[in-house]
Structures are given as C-alpha cells and as structure tokens.
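Shapes recur. Our protein:

. . .
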Amino acid sequence: MDSEQFQRIAKALADPTRFEILEHIAKQSEMGCRHLCGCFPVAQATISHHLKELSSAGLVESRKDGQFVYYKTRPVVLEGYMAELRRRMYFAAG
C-alpha cells in the first residue's frame, strides 16, 4: 500500500461519522444511500460527502441501480491498511 492511500484511509477513518457509516455498511452485504440517510441526523448531501471520502480511500465501492446507489465494503483494502499500520507501528517501536 502506498503512502498516499494509507493517508487517505487514515483520514477517512479518523472522522467519527465516516467510521460509523463504514460500520453500518460492513454489517450488511450492501447498503443503499437512502437507507444510510435514515440512520444519521444529517443532510443527504453530508452523507454523500462522507461516502465520497470512503470511496476515495478505497474502503467502499458503489454500484448504481437506476437512480439509487448502493455501497459495500472492500475488506481487502481495510486488511491491507491494518497490515501496513502494524508494519509501521512495529518499525516505529523497534
């Protein structure tokens, strides 16, 4: 994992709302944007912004079905991030 993607993921996960959105998506095989909007007391545009950041970091992928957009997590990316974090922490501590 390159340093730029590592930083994008770290930034995405640092925001409590984005982290909670990712948790919601991870609990389902797939989750629609409209459903996510009902889970949080923020505007749809705010949810869309958070989803864009999660997508940019590679943590979620989307698919369109007509006017609806559905998201699912990309576990391999999160696993890669965790492995890189462990590697960096191990070298920092050693």
About this structure: The two ends are 21 Å apart (CA to CA).
